[in-house]
Amino acid sequence: MSDFDPVEMKRMRWRSRRGLLELDLVLERFLARRFDTLTGDQLLAYRTLLDLPDTDFLEVVNGKVDLDAPELMEIVDMLRAI
Fold this sequence. Notes:
The chain is 65% helix and 0% strand. The chain has helices spanning 6-15, 21-33, 40-49, 54-61, 70-81. Helix 3 packs across helix 5. The two termini are 20 Å apart.
């Protein structure tokens, strides 16, 4: 686990609640299964993904769009495997 502030960790969990049911379902499973084991770099990448609009984020998770950033694709691959 990383040295992220516990408040920031809670903030990321809260920001994982999205407006699209399909995305919410994936993120809920991800939070339950993988979130607490992420490294600091992975948490930074996840936080960056949370900045995406819901529809864009869902397209990435569903594999309709790939990102050009390898550091983000590691988390995307985890989300796709959920």
